[in-house]
Write a structure and sequence with these properties.
Immunoglobulin-like; five-stranded mixed sheet; 10 strands; 159 residues; alpha+beta; 40% strand
């Protein structure tokens, strides 16, 4: 049901759109995304409780097209935005962690790749945690999966 509501909002244009000059916006859709110079891979590390469960997104850049990244979570109804990661320099790989529970009220995630830091060149957005995201009970298994997903896909190649 929540997915239907999110899709309806997206179709009706209720989602925030980038302002003029903010670059291209792409829907990430799957748990592994590859674009020019960018790979994004999602995983979930289950905790003993739901409050301890976290979503981990590994971001890898190559080729120097993007020098900075910031990540926001967005409430689709109020359009309220909260920073998950303020502008951060990118040098290779970066893991972004969020409590899984944070997706209940702020399901949209926007990954804004910038170069230079004040200009957004690419925004990859997700409408919640992708259905294809695998879950792991150990940090080691999650890390191995993310490394393998990135190695198989690599920046710029289709998953």
């Amino acid at each position: 049901m929540a997915r239907a509501v999110l899709m309806a909002l997206a179709i009706l244009g209720a989602w925030p759109v980038p302002a003029a000059g903010q670059g291209r916006e792409l829907h990430g859709e799957n748990s592994v995304f590859a674009g020019p110079g960018v790979t994004i891979a999602w995983g979930v590390r289950r905790g003993a409780t739901e409050e301890e469960t976290e979503v981990v997104v590994r971001i890898v850049v190559s080729g120097g097209a993007y020098t900075h990244l910031d990540v926001d979570m967005v409430d689709p109804f109020t359009r309220e935005r909260r920073a998950v990661l303020p502008a951060e320099p990118l040098t290779g790989a970066l893991d972004v962690r969020s409590p899984r529970a944070s997706f209940a009220d702020f399901p949209r995630r926007e990954f804004r790749f910038r170069s230079p830091p004040e200009e957004s060149a690419l925004t990859v957005y997700y409408l919640g945690v992708p259905d294809t995201t695998p879950e792991f009970t150990s940090e080691a298994a999650l890390a191995a999966y993310l490394a393998d997903a990135v190695a198989k896909t690599g920046p710029g190649r289709a998953p």
